[in-house]
Structure formats: structure tokens, C-alpha cells
Amino acid sequence: MKLLLDDANIKNIKEVYEYYKIDGVTTNPTILSKQGEKPLEVLKKIRNFIKDDQLHIQVLSKDYDSIIKESNLIVKEYGNNTFVKIPANKGGLKAIKKIAKDGINVTATAIYSPMQAFLAMKAGAKYVAPYINRIDNLGYDGILVVKKIQNIIDANNFDTKILAASFKNSNQVLELIQCGIYGFTCSFDIMNKFVDDKNVDSAIDDFVNDFLKLDSNKKTMIDYLL
Ligand code: E4P
């Protein structure tokens, strides 16, 4: 099971890595455009920090030859555990066939339908990234789309894994974790909502305050043990 951070802000990445067990970072052109720095430098900083963890970088090219060229350059620059994100439209699917055959890790992105995911799997993508929130916004059911994609994988023994993306709340993530979906990429905001519960903080404060009633000078077990 993989949990990735969908962000390119190095401060956010360092913070999330400090607290959670994270398996890598995903980016897209919109995320990179928000960093106020050249994408090359932003991605280099991320690669240096996350070392050999997965780094997903999306191609901007739309035609076959340029997608192939851009994918190869990305992997050459950012190393082996770099996943090239290719949007799974018709042109993208053609390129995925070639790139996957050449041994490059491909994440088929911008997945809005199970059929798109199926075609990307057939083409050899390592991951398919369905966009839960964006599907919901079109009036469909993003969670259901992910479940259908998982059925396609199971029924046909595909090696491709799901990297669920585009969440608007942590409950959507939790629902899919319970279904055994393989991977998730979540924004910094969503990651922070995972354990953002005032009840938890208040319970912890109650425990500490009760303990202090024993001896207000002994604040933790350390004071008793040393
Ligand atoms: C990941 O592959 C996508 O780039 C990302 O999750 C899209 O998220 P958004 O719908 O919040 O922009």
C-alpha cells in the first residue's frame, strides 16, 4: 500500500515526511505553477529530499513523438524511481504503449472512467490515477469509478495498481483504504485533516492533567523513572 503527497512545496513535503510514513511525491503542472520557481529546480529539490522514493512528474506534450521525448528526458533527469504521468486520452494511450514497453514507469493520469483505466492497463501503465473529486464534480460517483477499476484489475489479473487521486476530504480516502485500493495521493491539506480532531487533543490533555494531580512537579513518567 502506498501513500503519496500531491504537492511540490518543499516545506510541506518535509513536514509531511516528518510525521507520516510517506512513499513519494506526485506533482502536476498546476501544482508546479504555484511554486514561484522554475519547475526544474523545484523537482530537483524534491528528488534530493525524498531520495529514491517515487516521484511522479506529468508530461505537457500532447503529440506522440513529443510525449516520448519528454518522458525520456524526465526519467534521465530525475532517476529511475520517477514515474512519468501521461494523461490517458487517445494520444496518451498510444505513447503509454511505447514508453511502458521501453521500461519506463508510467502513471496514466486524468482517469475519469473505468474504460480509460482499462485501456491504460492494456497499454502497460504501472499505475492508473482516477480523479475522485473531479469525477464527483461532474455528477458521477468517484468512489464507484475506483471500485469498478479495481474490479477490472481483479477480474483480469492486471498488474497495474490504482493510485487514487483528487480528494476533497479524508473520508473519501478512508473509504477506499477499506476497499484495499493500493495507492493514494493526497494534498497537504487533506493529509493534515487525517488527524485533525479536537476530541483527540482534549483527551490527551485530560490524561496529562490527571497525572499531574499525583505530583505537579512530576510531569511525565521520566520524572518518576530517572
Ligand atoms: C494526481 O495525479 C492529480 O494531479 C491530482 O490529484 C489532481 O488533484 P485535484 O483534482 O485536486 O487538482
Walk me through this protein's architecture:
By secondary structure, the chain is of the alpha/beta class. The protein has twelve helices and eight strands. The protein has an eight-stranded parallel beta barrel with strand order 1-2-3-4-5-6-7-8, surrounded by six helices. Strand 4, helix 5 (90-101) and strand 5 (106-111) form a beta-alpha-beta unit. Helix 4 crosses helix 5 (90-101) and helix 6 (114-123) packs parallel to helix 8. The two termini are 40 Å apart. The mean pLDDT is 97. Bound molecules: erythose-4-phosphate. Erythose-4-phosphate (E4P) binds at residues 6, 26, 28, 109, 129, 131, 133-134, 165-166, 185.
Question: How are the SSEs placed, and which strands pair?
Answer:
Elements: E1 2-6, H1 10-19, E2 24-26, H2 29-33, H3 39-50, E3 54-58, H4 64-78, E4 82-87, H5 90-101, E5 106-111, H6 114-123, E6 127-130, H7 132-137, H8 142-156, E7 161-164, H9 170-178, E8 183-186, H10 188-193, H11 198-212, H12 221-225
Parallel strand pairs: 1-2, 1-8, 2-3, 3-4, 4-5, 5-6, 6-7, 7-8
The structure holds erythose-4-phosphate (E4P).
The site of erythose-4-phosphate has 11 residues, from helix 7.
How are strands sequenced across the largest beta sheet?
Answer: 1-2-3-4-5-6-7-8
Which class of secondary structure composition applies to the elements? alpha/beta
Number of strands: 8
Q: Which radius of gyration do the C-alpha atoms yield?
A: 21 Å
